[in-house]
Amino acid sequence: MRIAFVFAMPMEAQPLVKRLSLRKETIGGVEVRAGTLGDHDVVAIVTGMGTKLAGQAASRLLDAVPVDRVVVVGITGAISDDTPIGTLIVPEVVANAATGAEFRPDPILDAAPKGTMWTTDELLTSPDVLAGLRERGVISLDMETAAVAEVCERRGIPWSVVRVISDKAHDGSVDTEVFKLSNQDGSPNPKAVAKYLVRHPQRIPALARLGKQANLARTKAVDVAVDAVTRLP
Predict the structure, then answer these.
(1) Residues contacting 186, CB < 8 A, separation 6+
(2) From CA 132, how far away is CA 120, in angstroms rounded?
(3) Kind of pairing between the strands at 69-78 and 159-168
(4) Which of 92, 11, 72, 9 is nearest to 46 (CA)?
């Protein structure tokens, strides 16, 4: 089979690129990282952040490359304090906040699917909003998965999601300023980071902690995804 790994940000893809020694290729005008995993061919792309970029990138990839399965991999935010950093999220449903559309991943993990992953382009931190989502069974937030799922389902391609908790939406660790420290393509914005640190030197430890948590989450997500794909028939 050919497996497509889809990431939102370059930093999420780095552990996979390193672990599988993926090489840069351009296929049908689409820049990918390519290689093998066991008996499977592998391509990996970075879409950028948000539903629009994710949907567009997934469409370009699937138009250019024959793919048997898509696996969305990366980090996700918890909406409950009961969900520890580093928790693997295995959602039963992925919902698009903007349209209300719901999608069900094709399971590739041993864990039983549970709860809803909420895909939204908004940075949600309001306690009331988060409480409402918890009442609806939402367990984590992301900005791309539902858009990729929609593209896959239109083409009849099985898709799965492997995301790991890197932060908590309610604890203030990621606010609008922190969110803008990354460009829309998911790469860091050095100028914005420098200005942020000058304005908020007291937040340097919190920012370092957030980076450490993201590194833990991205590495675990890739490790779990690689193990799951290795065991596919």
Answers:
(1) 7, 8, 9, 10, 11, 12, 46, 47, 48, 49
(2) 15
(3) parallel
(4) 9
Residue 231 CA to residue 233 CA, distance in Å, equals 6
**pLDDT of res. 119:** 98
pLDDT in tens, 20-55: 999 999 998 999 999 999 999 999 999 999 999 999
Is the C-alpha dihedral spanning 72, 75, 76, 78 positive or negative?
positive
pLDDT digits (tens, 9 = 90+) for 157-196: 999 999 999 999 878 788 888 888 888 888 888 999 999 8
Q: Which of 118, 122, 133 is nearest to 80 (CA)?
A: 133
Report pTM: 0.94
Which three-class secondary structure state does DSSP give residue 165? strand
Alpha-carbon distance of 230 to 233, in angstroms, equals 8
CA distance 45 to 8: 8
- β pairing state of 88-89 and 159-168: antiparallel
Query: Could you give phi then psi for residue 194, rounded to 5 degrees?
Result: -60, -45
End-to-end alpha carbon distance in the chain: 9
